[in-house]
């Protein structure tokens, strides 16, 4: 077996491997000698069939297995002989006429393509200067949440016969929607509870039911928004035949001990304490999201090194498939994002590079500091996912048990969070007090607001919405 390096550029290595036809023939004869004692063929005593006959009879079928083994051996030998630290399993591209190889008339030739892991120096994470947004839970925040809970628990009483529906009333309706006289999927419902003014249905629908009375039939005419998720209905005029089966007015909104008791608590004071505790957890989670993003940004700024091409392309292809699927679902083209497809792909490719670079940095930090994810942690995460599918928990567990890649996708964010928490303990963290609205903004939008920046930034073009969405979804590979 002859292995020759043909390409050495950056992190890419390519090798030409040649396995002589005589070598393959020797392997074939060895295989025949191995199975010969076990063969019982008509016209021959067991184990006495001539090798020439066996080669003629079984040679071609056995040669396929021998060639496959030689390819695996050659690609592995190219890696081990050159002490390569691969970033991705080697790719093999056959060269020449494979049929001639199987027929024993030609040498086996193939190319081995290897992407190497980059060698880079980690930045000292203790020198990272990172901002953490924090906010205090105010009494107003608690009261606002308390009011929402009371409204969700609010009861309604039927209006007197002949009374018309008013804003904030609840109506029980049946409806059938049509576009151009044809019913459409999802446009029909029975015994649908609708609070007028809630904005639950498309604009204009609820307003046209104000003034309706019990047992009244009305045609509600609306136009679907141009950005409606169902592309076939976007910007279409529709008519809903509505039957009002009941009209109910809201009962008096009471925020007292009785409200707390309906929720299983002993008093309004206890309910407020529970709300405040939950808000603190929500604020802490939002604060951590901003901190994580700023840590990743700081790591990205501190590290610059060549990336394995195959790894980047794999990440980019995954992102681009999601973008294409979303555009198709919305009935849009790349140009609708305000840029050409080429420009969009360039931006998403930069996002893919960032993800891969951060993944490698986080993996190195985790490796050097002994950070790991236990099987128990993975199983707990899978159990949490299973609880999101009531009645199908067993199927979810079985899916992950059979799918190693799916388990890896569960393990990756757990590992990433561990590394981020490790860095947060060492980095220089500056807390910045903000209001609740800012805390719950997208990290990029929050930074722009704090810096007093506007959407018009001549030195840097605005990213399309989908690019922003992809960019903030960080993951470690």
From TrEMBL:
Its EC number is 5.2.1.8. It catalyses: [protein]-peptidylproline (omega=180) = [protein]-peptidylproline (omega=0). Its main location: cytoplasm. Residues 446-477 have a biased composition (Basic and acidic residues). It holds the Pfam family Trigger_N. Keywords: Cell cycle, Cell division, Chaperone, Cytoplasm, Isomerase, Rotamase. Residues 168-250 form the PPIase FKBP-type domain. The keyword Chaperone applies. InterPro entries: PPIase_dom_sf (IPR046357), PPIase_FKBP_dom (IPR001179), Trig_fac (IPR005215), Trigger_fac_C (IPR008880), Trigger_fac_C_sf (IPR037041), Trigger_fac_ribosome-bd_bac (IPR008881), Trigger_fac_ribosome-bd_sf (IPR036611), Trigger_fact/SurA_dom_sf (IPR027304). The keyword Heme does not apply. Residues 437-477 are annotated as: Disordered. It is found in: Cytoplasm. It comes from the Bacteria. PANTHER family: TRIGGER FACTOR CHAPERONE AND PEPTIDYL-PROLYL CIS/TRANS ISOMERASE (PTHR30560), TRIGGER FACTOR-LIKE PROTEIN TIG, CHLOROPLASTIC (PTHR30560:SF3). Consists of 3 domains; the N-terminus binds the ribosome, the middle domain has PPIase activity, while the C-terminus has intrinsic chaperone activity on its own. Belongs to the FKBP-type PPIase family. Tig subfamily. This is Trigger factor.
């Amino acid at each position: 077996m002859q292995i020759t390096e043909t390409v050495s550029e950056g992190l890419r290595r390519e090798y030409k491997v040649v396995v002589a036809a005589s070598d393959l023939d020797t392997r074939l004869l060895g295989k025949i000698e191995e199975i010969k004692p076990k063969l019982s063929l008509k016209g021959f005593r067991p184990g006495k069939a001539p090798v020439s006959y066996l080669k003629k009879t079984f040679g071609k079928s056995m040669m396929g297995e021998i060639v496959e083994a030689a390819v695996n051996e050659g690609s592995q030998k190219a890696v081990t002989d050159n002490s390569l630290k691969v970033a991705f399993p080697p790719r093999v591209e056959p060269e020449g006429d494979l049929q001639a190889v199987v027929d024993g008339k030609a040498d086996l030739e193939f190319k081995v393509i290897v992407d190497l892991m980059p060698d880079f120096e980690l930045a000292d994470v203790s020198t990272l200067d990172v901002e953490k947004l924090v906010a205090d839970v105010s009494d107003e925040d608690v009261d606002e949440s308390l009011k929402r809970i009371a409204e969700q628990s609010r009861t309604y009483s039927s209006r007197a016969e002949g009374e018309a529906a008013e804003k904030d009333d609840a109506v029980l309706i049946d409806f059938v929607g049509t576009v151009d006289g044809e019913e459409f999927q999802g446009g029909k419902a029975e015994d649908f509870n609708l609070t007028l003014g809630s904005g639950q249905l498309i604009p204009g629908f609820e307003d046209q039911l104000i003034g309706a009375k019990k047992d009244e039939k009305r045609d509600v005419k609306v136009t679907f928004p141009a950005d409606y998720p169902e592309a076939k209905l976007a910007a279409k005029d529709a008519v809903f035949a509505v039957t009002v089966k009941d009209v109910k007015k809201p009962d008096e909104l009471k925020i007292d001990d009785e409200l707390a008791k309906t929720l299983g608590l002993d008093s309004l004071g206890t309910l407020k304490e529970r709300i405040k505790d939950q808000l603190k957890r929500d604020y802490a989670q939002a604060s951590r999201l901003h901190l994580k993003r700023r840590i990743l940004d700081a790591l990205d700024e501190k590290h610059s090194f060549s990336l394995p091409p195959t790894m980047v392309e794999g990440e980019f292809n995954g992102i681009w498939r999601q973008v294409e699927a979303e555009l198709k679902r919305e009935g849009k083209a790349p140009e609708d994002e305000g840029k050409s497809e080429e420009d969009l792909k360039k931006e998403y490719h930069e996002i893919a590079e960032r993800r891969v670079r951060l993944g490698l940095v986080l993996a190195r930090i985790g490796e050097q500091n002994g950070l790991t994810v236990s099987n128990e942690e993975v199983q707990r995460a899978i159990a949490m996912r299973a609880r999101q599918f009531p009645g199908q928990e067993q199927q979810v567990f079985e899916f992950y048990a059979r799918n190693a890649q799916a388990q890896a996708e569960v393990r990756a964010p757990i590992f990433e969070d561990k590394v981020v928490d490790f860095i947060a303990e060492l980095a220089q963290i500056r807390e910045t007090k903000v209001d609740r609205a800012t805390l719950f903004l997208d990290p990029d939008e929050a930074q722009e607001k704090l810096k007093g920046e506007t959407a018009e930034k001549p030195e840097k073009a605005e990213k399309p919405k989908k690019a922003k969405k992809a960019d903030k979804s960080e993951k470690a590979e």
